[in-house]
Amino acid sequence: MKTLERVSGFVGKWMAAIVIAVAALALFKPEACSWISTSWINYLLGVVMFGMGLTLKPSDFAVVFRRPKDVVIGAVLQFTLMPLIAYALTVVFRLPAELAVGVILVGTCPGGTSSNVMTYLSHGDVALSVSMTAVSTILAPIMTPLLTLLYAGKTVDVNVAAMFISVVEVVLLPIVIGFVVNYFFSKFTQKAVKALPLVSTVAIVMIVAAVVSANSARIMTSGALILAVVICHNLLGYASGYGLAKLLRLDTTKCRAISIEVGMQNSGLATSLAATHFAQYPLATIPGAVFSVWHNISGALLASFFNHQSAKQAEEQKTAAAEN
Q1: 3-class DSSP state for residue 111?
Q2: 205, 16 contact by CB (below 8 A)
Q3: Which residues lie across from 111 on neighbouring strands?
Q4: Most buried residue, 85, 110, 147, 149, by CB count within 10 Å?
């Protein structure tokens, strides 16, 4: 078990590098990953969501009732900023419908599971981050289909009811099962969660590999455009989330949590929904897969930047105290 924990810890630490390496392999040598079918995406995402459920406890939802203002602000920013930014980027970059719907799906999805780790590394408000992830995920079956209809409904057919069922099946249901298992078998899950970074990384890597290998030729022709849009989407999410939280006079730790939570999306869900409901647009799955790779890199860099800021502030306070 200790060996498994060490392997899991190593994989969790180097997740971004592993995802990049596999994505590159799938892009330049697609035949090496062709055995991973895109039909597996929903099941793989379900595994990740079940793992998220195993980490949740009733106390994680207590923040919602103790600090409803913070959570409401975070949820509102989550479902307004990223969808709006996504739509704006599709207009600015004049994306074709099959790419535009993929970008919009990324924007309308809830916060990503790795945002909690990045918030912790940033010395942000982890409790708020966990609550925001949980609340946005619970709201996703309603908000994601409706927002997709709002922003993409004029260019593609959006089946709101079918998308609602999909989000419930691949996200909400696995999380609820994981939560229930953790509640009744907490002693077992406390040991099992130590292997979650390994399981989650493997599942995410397989999703990325499946999408990239199946669309390698298309990515080669439009990859630079997709990457540019994804980077802009992610960075604008960080910046606008932090900026608006600051304008609302939230403290620095909350601003950091909201920034990361807004900027990091559950892009695996976007990929799943694109593959299930927009199969006639093959490129629709690509933005989610690229986002999965990129936001782990940018999240780690942002956490490092926030840590540098904290160290600088601590040094300035130490110097001021010594002078007084």
Answers
A1: strand
A2: no
A3: 265
A4: 110
Exposure of 191 by Cβ count < 10 A (0-12 exposed, 13-18 middle, 19+ buried)? exposed
Helix axes 15-28, 2-13, angle to 10 degrees: 70
- 111 backbone dihedrals φ, ψ, rounded to 5°: -65, 155
User: 220 in helix, strand or coil?
Assistant: helix
Phi, psi of 250 (to 5 degrees): -85, 150
Torsion sign (Cα): 76, 240, 48, 58: negative
Q: What is the pTM of this model?
A: 0.86
Note the pLDDT tens digit of each residue in 244-298: 999 999 999 999 999 999 999 988 889 889 989 998 888 898 898 888 888 878 8
Q: 106, exposed or middle or buried, with CB in 10 Å at 0-12, 13-18, 19+?
A: buried
Q: What is the pLDDT of residue 320?
A: 66
**Distance set, CA 297 to CA 103, 302, 310 (Å):** 19, 9, 20
Q: Tokens at residue 274, please?
A: 């694109």
- Nearest Cα residue to 259 out of 309, 317, 207, 315: 309
